[in-house]
Amino acid sequence: MQYDVVIVGAGLSGLSCALTLQKQKLSFIVLESGERPGGRIQTDLKDGFQLDHGFQVLQTGYPEAGRMLEIQDLNLQRFPAGVAIRYNGRFHIIADPRHHPRYILSTLASPIGTLKDRLAMLRLARSVCQGPLSEIFTRPETQTIDFLRQQGFSQGFIQRFFVPFFAGTCLDPSITASSRVLQYIFRMFSQGDAALPTKGMGDIPRQLAAKLPTEAIHFNSKVAKVDGGIVTLTDGSQIHGRRVVLATSLAAIEQLLGLPASLSSLGESCLYFASAWRPPFREPFLVLNGDGQGPVNNIAFPSLVAPHYSTSGKTLIAAVVLGQSYLNSENLEQQVRSQCIDWFGNAVQDWDHIQTYHIKHALPEQTPPTANPYVLPKPVSEKVRICGEYQSLPGIQWALLSGRQTAEVLVTELC
User: Fold this and answer.
1) Cα–Cα–Cα angle for 194, 199, 204, nearest 5°?
2) pLDDT of 378
């Protein structure tokens, strides 16, 4: 059988593409090498806990999320609008006074930055929220570290706040990623909330996949070769399409197209612990490592934000470690535990280790020059197109956008 479109990959971009094609009544099939949809967005159930594959959030300000998802059905649980920064032996709360007025004085008096830094934050928030979102990706581009210096931020504030914050979102401790990416992220945090679906981040692709016919997605179907409109699976079977869309990771696309590996993958490890212990601040703020010492970049408490993440009543703790060098570390758990003992005290010795996820390809690098995510990459050939993070940007917003836009182009070509 020949389909109008064969989609390789059931991540968010592939699902978004399929849903858009379905609305236009084009025939399609989605080939997914794994057992479930979602790509890197997965949630496992283990010992009564929901474990996302790496610490992830859904920003309520994503325009495409409002377009493609049934947000109300995700029953989003929002993080508090602030962070707890570990610096010089203490936790310092920096919170949005509009949401957490009780932290106004502590935020103003915090040693994390100066009054000049706070004023620069206000200017940056105002600047990134002006005009349409797409305009950010036409602005002059430089490395984030240079952009922040140009904006007047002190070196101390950059190191204590922006380094762990930006590293947590882009997995880039050197903060050399594009200044456009920083401005986009800052806009999302300024205009919306970081949130978790009640049933875990994996509920996002599950919701999208549930809108498609069951027979439209073929799981455990690994593609070995793409030759024009002919897709060959590893079992030797072939599927024909008038068009083929590659909607998979950068590394997989490079392999399918025979391109040299870019060596640009950023890795992370996410260690999950459980305990009856609770953090020493009232709200479950995201904790950032402002000292820059030790393996842990940030710590979150998912079950204190979304209670369904723990059915036992215990606190679920997610510690994020960045860098490829830690992926094969034999004593990473002990290193993380030791750092957490220094931060939170001896109660950490009783934390139960649940699971560690080592994610080799967590994100691609986003150093300048970056692609404009509103502009689709050129077709590989007359019959083959690419959507997703390849020649675009990674993230939920851009995966959903690229899938939709790619499908809209195919509709014009095939109808």
Assistant:
1) 65
2) 93
